[in-house]
Design a protein that fits this description.
Elements (H helix, E strand, L loop, with lengths): L13 H10 L3 E4 L10 H6 L5 H14 L11 H12 L3 H16 L2 H7 L5 E9 H11 L5 E5 L5 H5 L1 H9 L1 H5 L2 E4 L5 H6 L2 E4 L19 H7 L5 H18 L6 H33 L7 H5 L8 H18 L6 H23 L2 H17 L9 H24 L8 H20 L7 H13 L1 H10 L13
Parallel strand pairs: 1-2, 1-4, 2-3, 4-5
Helix pairs in contact: 1-6, 3-4, 5-7, 13-19, 14-16, 14-17, 16-17, 17-18, 18-19, 19-20, 20-21
Length: about 475
Amino acid sequence: MSLTHVATRHDVSPEAALGAILDHRGPILLDLDETLYLRNSTEDFIDSARPRLPALLLMRALDLVKPWRWTGGEPTRDVWRVRVVSACFPWTARHWRQRVADLARGFTNLRLMEALRAPGTTTIITTVGFHPIVAPLVAALGLPQARIVAARLWTFADRRDGKLQMAQGALGDETIRSALVLTDSAQDIALLDACARPLRAVWPEARFRHALSSVYLPGQYLSQVKRPGERYIVRGILQEDFAFWVLASIGLAAVPLAHVIGLLFLLLSFWAIYERGYVDNDLVAARHELEPKLSEAFASAPVATPRWPPWLWALASGAIAIVALRWPNSPVPADFAAWAAVLAGTHFWFALYNRLDKGTRVWMFAGLQFARGAAFVALVPIAPIGAAALGAHVLAKWVPYHAYRLGGKAWPDAPLHLIRLMFFIVLALLLGFAQGLAALANVTALALLAWNLYRARQELVAALSAAHRIDRQRKEPPP
Protein backbone atom coordinates (compact mmCIF):
# COMPACT_ATOMS: atom_id res chain seq x y z
CA MET A 1 0.00 0.00 0.00
CA SER A 2 1.25 3.46 -0.84
CA LEU A 3 2.12 5.71 2.05
CA THR A 4 -0.21 8.26 0.50
CA HIS A 5 -3.12 6.12 1.69
CA VAL A 6 -1.83 5.29 5.17
CA ALA A 7 -3.73 6.97 7.98
CA THR A 8 -1.80 9.42 10.17
CA ARG A 9 -2.58 11.31 13.37
CA HIS A 10 -2.82 14.52 11.33
CA ASP A 11 -5.61 13.35 9.02
CA VAL A 12 -8.49 15.77 8.50
CA SER A 13 -11.29 16.09 5.99
CA PRO A 14 -10.89 18.48 3.05
CA GLU A 15 -13.58 20.68 4.57
CA ALA A 16 -11.72 20.89 7.87
CA ALA A 17 -8.51 21.73 6.01
CA LEU A 18 -10.22 24.59 4.17
CA GLY A 19 -11.57 25.96 7.43
CA ALA A 20 -8.13 25.79 9.07
CA ILE A 21 -6.58 27.73 6.18
CA LEU A 22 -9.14 30.52 6.55
CA ASP A 23 -8.43 30.74 10.30
CA HIS A 24 -4.64 30.56 10.09
CA ARG A 25 -2.48 33.65 10.32
CA GLY A 26 0.99 32.87 9.12
CA PRO A 27 2.76 31.03 6.35
CA ILE A 28 1.03 28.12 4.62
CA LEU A 29 3.29 25.38 3.27
CA LEU A 30 1.18 23.80 0.59
CA ASP A 31 1.80 20.54 -1.20
CA LEU A 32 1.28 20.62 -4.95
CA ASP A 33 0.65 17.19 -6.44
CA GLU A 34 -2.80 15.77 -5.72
CA THR A 35 -3.46 18.72 -3.43
CA LEU A 36 -3.47 22.09 -5.18
CA TYR A 37 -2.92 20.33 -8.52
CA LEU A 38 -5.21 17.30 -8.64
CA ARG A 39 -2.76 15.18 -10.61
CA ASN A 40 0.95 14.44 -10.42
CA SER A 41 3.21 16.97 -12.12
CA THR A 42 6.12 14.57 -12.64
CA GLU A 43 3.93 11.95 -14.30
CA ASP A 44 2.30 14.59 -16.48
CA PHE A 45 5.69 15.98 -17.50
CA ILE A 46 6.89 12.53 -18.60
CA ASP A 47 3.55 12.09 -20.34
CA SER A 48 4.49 15.12 -22.47
CA ALA A 49 7.34 13.22 -24.15
CA ARG A 50 6.99 12.62 -27.86
CA PRO A 51 7.02 10.22 -29.64
CA ARG A 52 5.08 8.38 -26.98
CA LEU A 53 5.88 4.74 -27.73
CA PRO A 54 9.69 5.16 -27.63
CA ALA A 55 9.28 7.17 -24.42
CA LEU A 56 7.24 4.36 -22.87
CA LEU A 57 9.80 1.76 -23.94
CA LEU A 58 12.49 3.90 -22.34
CA MET A 59 10.55 4.08 -19.07
CA ARG A 60 10.04 0.32 -19.06
CA ALA A 61 13.76 -0.20 -19.67
CA LEU A 62 14.50 2.01 -16.67
CA ASP A 63 12.06 0.04 -14.53
CA LEU A 64 13.87 -3.13 -15.56
CA VAL A 65 17.36 -1.84 -14.74
CA LYS A 66 16.33 0.17 -11.65
CA PRO A 67 19.37 2.48 -11.51
CA TRP A 68 17.88 4.22 -8.46
CA ARG A 69 19.05 1.22 -6.45
CA TRP A 70 22.46 2.93 -6.39
CA THR A 71 21.32 6.49 -5.60
CA GLY A 72 19.07 6.15 -2.58
CA GLY A 73 16.32 3.79 -3.60
CA GLU A 74 12.74 4.42 -4.67
CA PRO A 75 12.64 8.11 -3.59
CA THR A 76 15.18 8.92 -6.33
CA ARG A 77 13.36 7.00 -9.07
CA ASP A 78 11.74 10.10 -10.52
CA VAL A 79 15.07 11.89 -10.75
CA TRP A 80 16.27 9.20 -13.13
CA ARG A 81 13.03 9.17 -15.09
CA VAL A 82 12.90 12.92 -15.65
CA ARG A 83 16.61 13.19 -16.44
CA VAL A 84 16.49 10.38 -18.98
CA VAL A 85 13.34 11.71 -20.66
CA SER A 86 14.82 15.22 -20.79
CA ALA A 87 18.07 13.92 -22.27
CA CYS A 88 16.52 11.63 -24.87
CA PHE A 89 13.57 13.87 -25.74
CA PRO A 90 14.90 17.39 -25.13
CA TRP A 91 11.78 19.02 -26.60
CA THR A 92 9.67 17.65 -23.73
CA ALA A 93 10.21 20.77 -21.59
CA ARG A 94 8.86 22.98 -24.36
CA HIS A 95 5.86 20.73 -24.85
CA TRP A 96 5.26 20.75 -21.10
CA ARG A 97 5.17 24.55 -20.99
CA GLN A 98 2.64 24.49 -23.83
CA ARG A 99 0.43 22.03 -21.91
CA VAL A 100 0.39 23.55 -18.42
CA ALA A 101 -2.36 26.09 -19.14
CA ASP A 102 -4.79 23.36 -20.25
CA LEU A 103 -3.77 21.10 -17.37
CA ALA A 104 -4.27 23.92 -14.87
CA ARG A 105 -7.75 24.63 -16.20
CA GLY A 106 -8.73 21.01 -15.92
CA PHE A 107 -7.10 19.99 -12.65
CA THR A 108 -6.85 22.95 -10.29
CA ASN A 109 -8.29 22.29 -6.83
CA LEU A 110 -10.81 25.13 -7.04
CA ARG A 111 -12.02 24.82 -3.45
CA LEU A 112 -8.49 25.09 -2.13
CA MET A 113 -7.59 27.90 -4.50
CA GLU A 114 -10.56 29.92 -3.28
CA ALA A 115 -9.43 29.55 0.34
CA LEU A 116 -5.90 30.66 -0.57
CA ARG A 117 -7.26 33.93 -1.95
CA ALA A 118 -8.28 35.09 1.56
CA PRO A 119 -6.55 38.32 2.66
CA GLY A 120 -3.33 37.89 4.59
CA THR A 121 -2.61 34.40 3.29
CA THR A 122 1.05 33.69 2.52
CA THR A 123 1.33 30.58 0.38
CA ILE A 124 4.59 28.71 -0.11
CA ILE A 125 4.43 25.77 -2.50
CA THR A 126 6.47 23.00 -0.88
CA THR A 127 6.84 19.94 -3.04
CA VAL A 128 9.22 17.12 -3.89
CA GLY A 129 8.32 17.74 -7.51
CA PHE A 130 11.06 19.29 -9.61
CA HIS A 131 11.44 23.05 -9.85
CA PRO A 132 11.73 23.28 -13.67
CA ILE A 133 8.50 21.30 -13.92
CA VAL A 134 6.41 22.86 -11.16
CA ALA A 135 7.34 26.52 -11.71
CA PRO A 136 5.36 26.99 -14.97
CA LEU A 137 2.53 24.87 -13.55
CA VAL A 138 2.22 26.96 -10.37
CA ALA A 139 2.08 30.12 -12.48
CA ALA A 140 -0.63 28.59 -14.66
CA LEU A 141 -2.60 27.60 -11.54
CA GLY A 142 -2.90 31.30 -10.68
CA LEU A 143 -0.07 31.77 -8.17
CA PRO A 144 2.67 33.38 -10.27
CA GLN A 145 4.14 35.20 -7.26
CA ALA A 146 4.10 32.25 -4.87
CA ARG A 147 7.39 31.12 -3.43
CA ILE A 148 8.32 27.60 -4.48
CA VAL A 149 10.38 25.11 -2.50
CA ALA A 150 10.94 22.17 -4.85
CA ALA A 151 13.44 19.41 -5.53
CA ARG A 152 16.45 20.16 -7.68
CA LEU A 153 16.88 17.98 -10.72
CA TRP A 154 20.68 17.91 -10.69
CA THR A 155 20.97 16.21 -7.29
CA PHE A 156 19.52 13.11 -5.67
CA ALA A 157 19.81 14.60 -2.19
CA ASP A 158 16.48 16.45 -2.15
CA ARG A 159 14.47 13.37 -3.00
CA ARG A 160 16.56 11.20 -0.71
CA ASP A 161 16.45 13.51 2.32
CA GLY A 162 12.77 14.46 2.09
CA LYS A 163 10.62 17.54 2.22
CA LEU A 164 11.47 18.61 5.78
CA GLN A 165 15.17 19.10 5.07
CA MET A 166 14.33 20.91 1.84
CA ALA A 167 12.03 23.28 3.72
CA GLN A 168 14.54 23.82 6.53
CA GLY A 169 17.25 24.73 4.06
CA ALA A 170 15.05 27.12 2.11
CA LEU A 171 12.84 28.63 4.83
CA GLY A 172 14.45 28.02 8.22
CA ASP A 173 13.09 26.33 11.32
CA GLU A 174 11.23 29.39 12.61
CA THR A 175 9.06 29.65 9.50
CA ILE A 176 8.24 25.95 9.69
CA ARG A 177 7.33 26.13 13.39
CA SER A 178 4.81 28.89 12.72
CA ALA A 179 3.38 27.42 9.54
CA LEU A 180 0.30 25.51 8.57
CA VAL A 181 1.30 22.52 6.43
CA LEU A 182 -1.26 20.94 4.12
CA THR A 183 -0.38 17.78 2.21
CA ASP A 184 -1.99 14.56 1.04
CA SER A 185 1.06 12.34 1.60
CA ALA A 186 2.01 10.34 4.67
CA GLN A 187 5.60 10.60 3.43
CA ASP A 188 5.53 14.19 4.73
CA ILE A 189 5.04 13.08 8.34
CA ALA A 190 8.34 14.61 9.49
CA LEU A 191 7.35 18.04 8.13
CA LEU A 192 3.88 17.71 9.62
CA ASP A 193 5.34 16.95 13.04
CA ALA A 194 7.59 20.04 12.88
CA CYS A 195 4.95 22.67 12.05
CA ALA A 196 2.37 24.60 14.07
CA ARG A 197 -0.75 23.31 12.29
CA PRO A 198 -0.30 19.94 10.57
CA LEU A 199 -3.03 18.88 8.15
CA ARG A 200 -3.15 15.84 5.92
CA ALA A 201 -6.18 15.75 3.66
CA VAL A 202 -6.87 13.38 0.78
CA TRP A 203 -8.94 15.12 -1.86
CA PRO A 204 -11.60 12.91 -3.49
CA GLU A 205 -11.17 14.75 -6.80
CA ALA A 206 -7.45 13.90 -6.99
CA ARG A 207 -6.35 11.25 -9.45
CA PHE A 208 -2.90 9.73 -9.85
CA ARG A 209 -2.40 8.98 -13.52
CA HIS A 210 0.68 7.07 -14.63
CA ALA A 211 2.76 8.70 -17.35
CA LEU A 212 2.09 7.40 -20.86
CA SER A 213 -0.67 5.14 -19.55
CA SER A 214 -2.72 5.73 -22.71
CA VAL A 215 0.02 4.17 -24.86
CA TYR A 216 -0.48 0.49 -25.65
CA LEU A 217 2.44 -1.89 -25.22
CA PRO A 218 2.14 -5.69 -25.26
CA GLY A 219 2.82 -7.26 -21.87
CA GLN A 220 1.81 -4.29 -19.73
CA TYR A 221 -1.60 -5.65 -18.79
CA LEU A 222 -0.11 -9.01 -17.95
CA SER A 223 2.68 -7.63 -15.76
CA GLN A 224 0.84 -4.73 -14.11
CA VAL A 225 -2.78 -5.87 -13.85
CA LYS A 226 -3.27 -9.59 -14.38
CA ARG A 227 -0.18 -10.81 -12.53
CA PRO A 228 1.41 -7.80 -10.84
CA GLY A 229 4.69 -8.37 -9.04
CA GLU A 230 5.19 -11.92 -10.33
CA ARG A 231 7.71 -11.25 -13.14
CA TYR A 232 5.45 -13.50 -15.15
CA ILE A 233 6.87 -12.57 -18.55
CA VAL A 234 10.26 -13.90 -17.52
CA ARG A 235 9.24 -16.76 -15.26
CA GLY A 236 5.98 -17.86 -16.84
CA ILE A 237 6.59 -17.19 -20.54
CA LEU A 238 10.28 -16.97 -21.41
CA GLN A 239 11.45 -19.70 -19.03
CA GLU A 240 8.43 -21.87 -19.75
CA ASP A 241 6.66 -21.58 -23.11
CA PHE A 242 9.49 -19.95 -25.06
CA ALA A 243 12.15 -22.30 -23.71
CA PHE A 244 10.20 -25.28 -25.02
CA TRP A 245 9.56 -23.56 -28.34
CA VAL A 246 13.30 -23.21 -28.81
CA LEU A 247 14.40 -26.60 -27.49
CA ALA A 248 11.75 -28.50 -29.46
CA SER A 249 12.66 -26.94 -32.81
CA ILE A 250 16.17 -25.52 -32.93
CA GLY A 251 17.72 -28.88 -33.83
CA LEU A 252 15.97 -28.63 -37.21
CA ALA A 253 16.76 -24.96 -37.83
CA ALA A 254 18.92 -24.01 -40.82
CA VAL A 255 20.13 -20.77 -39.22
CA PRO A 256 19.84 -21.12 -35.42
CA LEU A 257 20.34 -17.42 -34.59
CA ALA A 258 17.71 -16.28 -37.09
CA HIS A 259 15.47 -19.08 -35.80
CA VAL A 260 15.63 -17.86 -32.17
CA ILE A 261 15.06 -14.25 -33.24
CA GLY A 262 12.11 -15.35 -35.32
CA LEU A 263 10.62 -17.29 -32.41
CA LEU A 264 10.98 -14.22 -30.17
CA PHE A 265 8.98 -12.09 -32.58
CA LEU A 266 6.49 -14.92 -33.00
CA LEU A 267 6.11 -15.03 -29.22
CA LEU A 268 5.46 -11.28 -29.17
CA SER A 269 2.88 -11.68 -31.92
CA PHE A 270 1.11 -14.52 -30.14
CA TRP A 271 1.05 -12.82 -26.73
CA ALA A 272 -0.31 -9.57 -28.10
CA ILE A 273 -3.48 -11.52 -28.88
CA TYR A 274 -3.38 -13.93 -25.94
CA GLU A 275 -3.00 -11.02 -23.52
CA ARG A 276 -6.08 -9.44 -25.05
CA GLY A 277 -7.88 -12.62 -23.98
CA TYR A 278 -6.86 -11.87 -20.39
CA VAL A 279 -8.29 -8.36 -20.72
CA ASP A 280 -11.55 -9.78 -22.03
CA ASN A 281 -11.56 -12.38 -19.25
CA ASP A 282 -11.39 -9.71 -16.57
CA LEU A 283 -14.01 -7.52 -18.24
CA VAL A 284 -16.45 -10.42 -18.57
CA ALA A 285 -15.80 -11.46 -14.96
CA ALA A 286 -16.39 -7.92 -13.67
CA ARG A 287 -19.70 -7.70 -15.53
CA HIS A 288 -21.17 -11.15 -15.05
CA GLU A 289 -19.56 -13.02 -12.12
CA LEU A 290 -20.81 -12.66 -8.55
CA GLU A 291 -17.33 -13.03 -7.06
CA PRO A 292 -14.86 -12.10 -9.81
CA LYS A 293 -11.21 -12.69 -9.04
CA LEU A 294 -9.62 -9.44 -10.11
CA SER A 295 -6.39 -7.83 -8.99
CA GLU A 296 -6.44 -4.49 -7.17
CA ALA A 297 -4.81 -2.91 -10.22
CA PHE A 298 -7.84 -3.75 -12.36
CA ALA A 299 -9.91 -0.95 -10.84
CA SER A 300 -7.21 1.69 -11.31
CA ALA A 301 -6.66 0.80 -15.00
CA PRO A 302 -2.95 1.77 -15.05
CA VAL A 303 -2.38 0.62 -18.65
CA ALA A 304 -4.09 1.00 -21.99
CA THR A 305 -6.23 -1.89 -23.25
CA PRO A 306 -7.38 -0.89 -26.75
CA ARG A 307 -9.10 -3.30 -29.11
CA TRP A 308 -7.17 -2.94 -32.38
CA PRO A 309 -3.53 -1.99 -31.60
CA PRO A 310 -2.81 -5.53 -30.29
CA TRP A 311 -3.69 -6.84 -33.75
CA LEU A 312 -1.36 -4.34 -35.38
CA TRP A 313 1.45 -5.47 -33.08
CA ALA A 314 0.60 -9.11 -33.67
CA LEU A 315 0.52 -8.83 -37.45
CA ALA A 316 3.66 -6.69 -37.70
CA SER A 317 5.77 -8.78 -35.32
CA GLY A 318 4.38 -11.95 -36.89
CA ALA A 319 5.52 -10.79 -40.32
CA ILE A 320 9.02 -10.07 -38.96
CA ALA A 321 9.05 -13.50 -37.32
CA ILE A 322 8.14 -15.28 -40.54
CA VAL A 323 10.88 -13.52 -42.48
CA ALA A 324 13.45 -14.49 -39.82
CA LEU A 325 12.22 -18.09 -39.56
CA ARG A 326 12.41 -18.58 -43.31
CA TRP A 327 15.85 -16.95 -43.64
CA PRO A 328 17.79 -17.21 -45.96
CA ASN A 329 14.79 -18.22 -48.09
CA SER A 330 11.78 -16.04 -48.74
CA PRO A 331 8.44 -16.65 -47.01
CA VAL A 332 5.39 -17.65 -49.02
CA PRO A 333 1.83 -16.30 -48.66
CA ALA A 334 0.76 -19.57 -47.00
CA ASP A 335 3.06 -18.77 -44.05
CA PHE A 336 1.28 -15.49 -43.35
CA ALA A 337 -2.13 -17.10 -43.82
CA ALA A 338 -1.25 -19.94 -41.42
CA TRP A 339 -0.10 -17.58 -38.69
CA ALA A 340 -3.09 -15.28 -39.15
CA ALA A 341 -5.32 -18.33 -38.71
CA VAL A 342 -3.50 -19.24 -35.48
CA LEU A 343 -4.04 -15.73 -34.10
CA ALA A 344 -7.68 -15.62 -35.13
CA GLY A 345 -8.31 -19.11 -33.73
CA THR A 346 -6.65 -18.25 -30.42
CA HIS A 347 -8.68 -15.07 -30.13
CA PHE A 348 -11.94 -16.89 -30.88
CA TRP A 349 -11.19 -19.77 -28.47
CA PHE A 350 -10.26 -17.39 -25.62
CA ALA A 351 -13.39 -15.25 -26.21
CA LEU A 352 -15.57 -18.39 -26.13
CA TYR A 353 -13.80 -19.66 -23.03
CA ASN A 354 -14.46 -16.37 -21.23
CA ARG A 355 -18.20 -16.61 -21.88
CA LEU A 356 -18.85 -20.21 -20.90
CA ASP A 357 -19.55 -21.68 -17.49
CA LYS A 358 -16.67 -22.72 -15.27
CA GLY A 359 -17.40 -26.43 -15.62
CA THR A 360 -17.04 -26.23 -19.39
CA ARG A 361 -13.93 -24.11 -19.05
CA VAL A 362 -12.10 -27.09 -17.54
CA TRP A 363 -11.96 -28.73 -20.95
CA MET A 364 -11.49 -25.56 -22.98
CA PHE A 365 -8.51 -24.59 -20.85
CA ALA A 366 -6.56 -27.43 -22.43
CA GLY A 367 -7.05 -25.73 -25.80
CA LEU A 368 -5.67 -22.46 -24.49
CA GLN A 369 -2.63 -24.24 -23.10
CA PHE A 370 -2.14 -26.07 -26.37
CA ALA A 371 -2.13 -22.71 -28.17
CA ARG A 372 0.42 -21.31 -25.71
CA GLY A 373 2.64 -24.35 -25.93
CA ALA A 374 2.41 -25.26 -29.58
CA ALA A 375 1.15 -22.32 -31.68
CA PHE A 376 4.55 -22.00 -33.34
CA VAL A 377 4.31 -25.44 -34.96
CA ALA A 378 2.04 -23.87 -37.58
CA LEU A 379 5.26 -22.45 -39.05
CA VAL A 380 8.13 -24.43 -37.57
CA PRO A 381 8.90 -28.18 -37.80
CA ILE A 382 9.69 -29.93 -34.53
CA ALA A 383 11.45 -33.15 -33.63
CA PRO A 384 9.29 -36.08 -32.42
CA ILE A 385 10.80 -35.79 -28.94
CA GLY A 386 9.91 -32.10 -29.10
CA ALA A 387 6.28 -33.06 -29.63
CA ALA A 388 6.47 -35.23 -26.50
CA ALA A 389 7.94 -32.33 -24.52
CA LEU A 390 5.24 -29.93 -25.69
CA GLY A 391 2.56 -32.47 -24.84
CA ALA A 392 3.99 -32.84 -21.35
CA HIS A 393 4.10 -29.06 -20.99
CA VAL A 394 0.45 -28.67 -21.97
CA LEU A 395 -0.75 -31.53 -19.73
CA ALA A 396 1.19 -30.22 -16.73
CA LYS A 397 -0.50 -26.83 -17.12
CA TRP A 398 -3.94 -28.40 -17.42
CA VAL A 399 -3.79 -30.77 -14.43
CA PRO A 400 -3.66 -28.05 -11.70
CA TYR A 401 -6.45 -26.13 -13.44
CA HIS A 402 -8.60 -29.26 -13.49
CA ALA A 403 -8.01 -29.69 -9.74
CA TYR A 404 -8.72 -25.98 -9.16
CA ARG A 405 -12.06 -25.98 -10.99
CA LEU A 406 -13.34 -29.31 -9.68
CA GLY A 407 -11.70 -29.51 -6.27
CA GLY A 408 -11.79 -26.16 -4.51
CA LYS A 409 -11.67 -22.38 -4.52
CA ALA A 410 -7.90 -21.93 -4.33
CA TRP A 411 -5.33 -22.77 -6.98
CA PRO A 412 -3.62 -26.00 -5.81
CA ASP A 413 -0.01 -25.84 -4.74
CA ALA A 414 0.93 -28.50 -7.27
CA PRO A 415 4.55 -29.31 -8.24
CA LEU A 416 4.08 -28.14 -11.83
CA HIS A 417 7.63 -28.80 -12.98
CA LEU A 418 7.76 -32.25 -11.44
CA ILE A 419 4.42 -33.15 -13.04
CA ARG A 420 5.78 -32.00 -16.40
CA LEU A 421 8.97 -34.03 -15.92
CA MET A 422 6.92 -37.14 -15.19
CA PHE A 423 4.70 -36.60 -18.25
CA PHE A 424 7.76 -36.00 -20.40
CA ILE A 425 9.46 -39.21 -19.30
CA VAL A 426 6.29 -41.25 -19.91
CA LEU A 427 5.68 -39.76 -23.35
CA ALA A 428 9.34 -40.03 -24.29
CA LEU A 429 9.41 -43.73 -23.35
CA LEU A 430 6.28 -44.39 -25.41
CA LEU A 431 7.94 -42.57 -28.32
CA GLY A 432 11.02 -44.73 -27.90
CA PHE A 433 8.95 -47.91 -27.92
CA ALA A 434 7.13 -46.75 -31.05
CA GLN A 435 10.05 -45.40 -33.09
CA GLY A 436 13.08 -47.02 -31.51
CA LEU A 437 15.79 -45.69 -29.24
CA ALA A 438 17.11 -43.43 -32.00
CA ALA A 439 14.20 -41.08 -31.25
CA LEU A 440 15.66 -40.56 -27.77
CA ALA A 441 19.39 -40.67 -28.51
CA ASN A 442 19.84 -37.14 -29.83
CA VAL A 443 20.86 -33.70 -28.63
CA THR A 444 17.27 -32.39 -28.62
CA ALA A 445 16.10 -35.17 -26.31
CA LEU A 446 19.01 -34.62 -23.93
CA ALA A 447 18.46 -30.86 -23.91
CA LEU A 448 14.76 -31.24 -23.15
CA LEU A 449 15.43 -33.75 -20.40
CA ALA A 450 18.09 -31.49 -18.89
CA TRP A 451 15.79 -28.45 -18.96
CA ASN A 452 12.92 -30.38 -17.39
CA LEU A 453 15.23 -31.67 -14.67
CA TYR A 454 16.62 -28.20 -14.03
CA ARG A 455 13.19 -26.63 -13.73
CA ALA A 456 11.95 -29.46 -11.49
CA ARG A 457 15.08 -29.70 -9.35
CA GLN A 458 13.64 -28.22 -6.15
CA GLU A 459 10.34 -30.08 -6.41
CA LEU A 460 12.19 -33.31 -7.18
CA VAL A 461 14.46 -32.93 -4.14
CA ALA A 462 11.44 -32.17 -1.93
CA ALA A 463 9.59 -35.23 -3.21
CA LEU A 464 12.60 -37.51 -2.70
CA SER A 465 13.24 -36.09 0.77
CA ALA A 466 9.64 -36.77 1.78
CA ALA A 467 9.69 -40.37 0.53
CA HIS A 468 9.93 -43.09 3.19
CA ARG A 469 9.20 -46.78 3.61
CA ILE A 470 5.98 -47.54 5.44
CA ASP A 471 7.00 -51.16 6.16
CA ARG A 472 9.70 -49.90 8.52
CA GLN A 473 7.45 -47.57 10.47
CA ARG A 474 6.43 -48.52 13.98
CA LYS A 475 2.74 -49.25 14.05
CA GLU A 476 0.93 -47.14 16.61
CA PRO A 477 -1.40 -49.06 18.91
CA PRO A 478 -5.10 -48.12 18.70
CA PRO A 479 -6.27 -45.72 21.39
